[in-house]
C-alpha cells in the first residue's frame, strides 16, 4: 500500500470535501498518511485528523516562512503535543531563502531549536529546504547527526542527495519528478538507492502530471511511483512496497 509521508489535509483547500476524499483513500490503495504541520494554527487541525482517522499520523513544527510567530510559550506547547502517540515527527522545519519571509538568523535559530527538541523527544524530523543547500547541510551535520530525517520535496543535486543518504537520511520525492523539465530530480532518483526514497504529495501543492497545476492528493501518488519505477527500470509495485517499508522505518510506525 501507498504511504504518503508528507501531506497537508489540514489546508483550507480541502474544507469542501475533506471527509469524502479521506474516506476514499483506502479504496485508492493509500494506507498511511503523515500530515505535516506548517503553521502553529495547523497543529490543532492535525491532532483532530489523527484522532478521527486510524491511518493518519501527524507532525508538529513550524515552517521556516512562519518562524516569526514562534515564541517560548508556543514552543512549550509543541513540546507537549509531541508526547501524543500519533504525532510521529517534528516538522516541517528548515530554511527557505527562496520566499525569504523571515531573516536568515531567525530561521536558523528556530531550525536548530526544533532539531534539538526532536532529539530530546527521540523523534524524526521533516526538513524543508529551498535555496539554502549549504546552510541546511551544515546545520544537519552539526545538530542532526544520527537522527531519523527526511529531506522533503528534495530539490538539490544528486551529489548532495548521495551525501544525505550516507548520513542515513531519506529523500522525499513527489509530483515534481513527473514534470518533463525536472531533469535534476530524475537524476537524483536514478543515482540514489530505492531504500533511501520515500513518496510524498505535499498536497494540496505539486500535483503530478497529468494533474499538474490542480489540487494534489494522495490518490495521485501512483503517478509518482510509476515515474520512479520507469527511471529505475523496476515495477511500480516494487516502488510502492519498498517506499512503504522506508517510510515505516523513518517514522517508526509498525
Ligand atoms: Ni509541505
- CATH level 4 superfamily: Metal-dependent hydrolases
Radius of gyration: 17 Å
Tell me the helix content. Answer: 40-55%
Specify the overall morphology: globular
CATH topology: TIM Barrel
CATH class, named Alpha Beta
Characterize the biggest β-sheet.
Answer: 8 strands, parallel
What is the percentage of strand-forming residues?
Answer: 15-25%
**Count of folded domains:** 1
Describe this structure as you would to a colleague:
With 254 residues, the protein is an alpha/beta fold. It has a single domain (2-251), classed as TIM Barrel (Alpha-Beta Barrel). It is 40% helix and 17% strand. The protein contains nine helices and eight strands. It has helices at 18-23, 42-52, 72-81, 104-121, 133-143, 158-166, 183-191, 221-232, 236-251; strands spanning 2-7, 30-35, 56-60, 87-96, 125-130, 149-151, 170-173, 197-199. It has an eight-stranded parallel beta sheet with strand order 1-2-3-4-5-6-7-8. α6 links the parallel β6 and β7 (170-173). α6 packs parallel to α7 (183-191) and α8 (221-232) packs across α9 (236-251). The chain is globular and about 45 Å long. The two termini are 13 Å apart.
In summary, what is this structure?
This protein is α/β, with parallel strands linked by helices. The chain is built from 9 helices and 8 strands. The protein has a single domain, classed as Metal-dependent hydrolases (TIM Barrel), CATH 3.20.20.
Summarize this structure as a short list of keywords or feature phrases.
globular; binds nickel (II) ion; eight-stranded parallel beta sheet; 17% strand; 9 helices; 40% helix; alpha/beta; TIM Barrel
